[in-house]
Design a protein that fits this description.
The N terminus is likely disordered. It contains 11 helices and no strands. 70% of the residues lie in helices and 0% in strands. It starts with 22 loop residues before the first helix and ends with a helix. The protein is an all-alpha fold.
Length: 268
């Protein structure tokens, strides 16, 4: 079992393609795993081009909404990485690659109709051709799956390769620095998902929506770090690790379903 393998107790029809008309293009986009941050951005761009061809919504489909946000954030991380903005570039590179691989593995698993697709990703992917969802909650549902479920295991895999990073270390400081990338990018990204009437309300709210969404990102990323630190104590205990994986998947899936519910979609 590889470090970035995905599991998940999801009842799918094995062998049934879920990407339909973009199956071949998606397969080409995911043909190789990236080995650096630039490769992660390149793969995300290829995935975006495939998703932009998925009917009936094309570039406005729920998975494309998240993928576009993820691409923007990762491109900003790459720019900061190239300018020497991180204390331990090797750590940041490994973490970004391991993080991206989990999303790419989930896309592959769903596309192949495999039963090991994580439940939290199935929540989003299963809505990929629905027309009644708003873009913002779809993007947030993807962020939920990627941070609350994928990120702790990306950290574990990174530490397994490079050695464990403790809190208040240079690696932890780099990890927290990513929060600044989100903080700078979220206002523009969020407003890009809003309709005209929502933009009017957004102006009335001032900076409150930006503040609470940035705070939410920081809290969830802190929780992911804490989860990974706790799991590191028994990382070699496969049974316990699998139990924790299922619990994280279940909780993230519940949050994803709430985010994509009609009531929650109307609020965003």
């Amino acid at each position: 079992m590889t470090d970035h393998q995905i599991w998940g107790p999801v009842d799918l029809d094995v062998g049934e393609s879920r990407w339909g008309p973009i199956e071949e293009q998606m397969g080409e986009a995911l043909a190789e795993d990236p080995t650096d941050i630039s490769g992660v951005v390149t793969t995300l761009l290829r995935v975006q081009r495939a998703l932009d061809n998925l009917p009936p919504l094309y570039h406005d489909n729920p998975v494309a909404d998240f993928n576009a946000l993820y691409t923007t954030i990762t491109a900003k991380i790459l720019a900061e990485h190239r300018t020497g903005g991180f204390a331990d570039p090797a750590f940041l590179t490994m973490l970004d690659v391991e993080f991206g691989r989990r999303y790419f593995d989930a896309l592959r698993a769903w596309g192949a109709g495999r039963p090991d697709t994580p439940e939290t990703w199935v929540v989003l992917f299963s809505h990929s051709q629905e027309t009644g969802l708003r873009s913002l909650p779809c993007a947030v549902a993807g962020v939920n799956a990627h941070i609350n479920y994928d990120l702790p295991f990306a950290l574990l895999a990174t530490w397994r390769h490079l050695g464990r990073s403790v809190s208040n270390s240079p690696q932890h400081a780099d990890y927290l620095r990513i929060n600044n990338v989100f903080r700078e990018a979220i206002p523009g990204l969020r407003r890009g998902y809003l309709q005209r009437w929502q933009l009017y309300i957004d102006r009335l709210n001032g900076t409150f929506d930006d503040w609470y969404q940035n705070t939410l990102v920081e809290l969830t990323r802190n929780m992911a770090w804490d989860h990974a630190q706790a799991m590191w104590q028994w990382y070699e205990d496969a049974v316990r690790l699998e139990h924790e994986r299922q619990e994280l998947d279940r909780r993230a899936a519940l949050i994803g379903r709430a985010l994509l519910s009609p009531f929650c979609s109307l609020l965003q």
